[in-house]
Amino acid sequence: MTSPNLIILYVKDPAESASFYRNLLNREPAVEAPNFVAFPLEGGFTLGLWRRSKVEPQPSAIGNRGEVAFMVEGENAVARHYEDWRQRGLPIAQELTELDFGPTFVVLDPDGHRLRVCEPDK
User: Residue 47 maps to which CATH number?
Assistant: First the structure.
């Protein structure tokens, strides 16, 4: 069975985005090239950052049509992440709030990609 294990975000400047994600994830990339950076994550998943102008074939549109979600476990874990990321000065797109699926908030990376923090399904 084939399982997804890589998500790629198209970015204006991979070095700038790498700096953002290095700080956010508190880890170093495994690959760092002029047009592509890759951060291995837990569970065998990788986050790739590809220079938008070098993507082949070129995307047909630019915009927020999805999110990268970080599911965190533990009592008040979402609120703790919110305070940490707010203190770091990350741009908040959605303040800490309660939705149908529990507490959540959204920050933006340098290219406007939405990064949501929430609890895993129970």
Answer: 3.30.720.120
- Per-position pLDDT tens, the chain of length 122: 688 899 999 999 999 999 999 999 999 999 999 999 999 999 899 999 999 999 999 888 766 678 999 999 999 999 999 999 999 999 999 999 999 999 999 999 999 999 999 998 86
Residues 49 and 67 in one domain: no
Three-state SS annotation for 64-115: CCCEEEEECCCCCHHHHHHHHHHHCCCCEEEEEEEECCEEEEEEECCCCCEE
Eight-state DSSP code of residue 120: P
